[in-house]
């Protein structure tokens, strides 16, 4: 009896399994595409809209997502964090008083997701398991990536509510 076909049949499911890194890459890409679509759905003149005084305005919310992604993906991967463009750097120094316009928000979001996709691609199993970050916030590389993927989803959900309050239907999520 030839055992090779049986061994191949048993091995195929193992070969087809997705790694944690593959799953992270897939979901960071989908998250980036969807977040940018949400950002593009808000008209430029509404980027200073906030549903209540305690909330960030829409542009600030988009900049917050992007800046947080840059930091988390840099810590997780060990890659150098890209510098913020001047207008976003000004916002980062005074997040309550500086507004972020549509073009700058979309550009920094695009740049942040490009960087995170590069960071995820650079992750090794050792990097995913390695603990990194400041003393008060030590996490594994995986936790940094998953935590900030979730952070993005949280704030993107806020942004979708902002759109609905303005009477704008958010883009449909694609998975």
Element order: H for helix, E for strand: HHHHHHEEH
CATH superfamily: dinb family like domain
Helix content: 55-70%
Percent of sequence in beta strands = under 5%
Strand order of the largest sheet: 1-2
Backbone structural class? mainly alpha
Rounded mean pLDDT is 91
Work out the count of structural domains.
Answer: 1
Count of runs of 4 or more consecutive helical residues: 7
Largest sheet: 2 strands, antiparallel
**CATH architecture grouping:** Up-down Bundle
State the total count of DSSP E strands. 2
Termini separation comes to: 44 Å
Tags for this entry?
single chain, 175 residues, mainly alpha, Four Helix Bundle (Hemerythrin (Met), subunit A), two-stranded antiparallel ribbon, 7 helices, 2% strand, globular
What report would you give on this structure?
A two-stranded antiparallel sheet has the order 1-2. α2 (20-41) packs parallel to α7 (141-165) and α3 runs antiparallel to α7. It has seven helices and two strands; from the N terminus they run ααααααββα. It has 175 residues and is mostly helical.
């Amino acid at each position: 009896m030839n055992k090779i076909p049986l061994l191949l049949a048993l091995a195929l499911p193992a070969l087809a399994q997705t790694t944690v890194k593959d799953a992270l890459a897939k979901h960071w890409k989908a998250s980036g595409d969807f977040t940018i679509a949400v950002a593009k759905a808000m008209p430029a003149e509404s980027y200073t809209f906030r549903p209540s005084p305690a909330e960030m305005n829409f542009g600030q919310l988009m900049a917050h997502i992007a800046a947080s992604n840059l930091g988390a993906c840099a810590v997780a991967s060990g890659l150098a964090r890209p510098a913020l463009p001047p207008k976003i750097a000004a916002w980062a120094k005074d997040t309550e008083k500086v507004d972020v316009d549509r073009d700058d928000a979309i550009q920094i979001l695009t740049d942040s997701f490009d960087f995170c996709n590069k960071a995820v691609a650079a992750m090794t199993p050792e990097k995913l398991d390695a603990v990194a970050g400041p003393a008060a916030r030590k996490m594994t590389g995986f936790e940094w990536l998953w935590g900030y993927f979730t952070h993005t989803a949280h704030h993107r959900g806020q942004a979708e509510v902002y759109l609905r309050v303005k009477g704008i239907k958010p883009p449909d999520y694609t998975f």
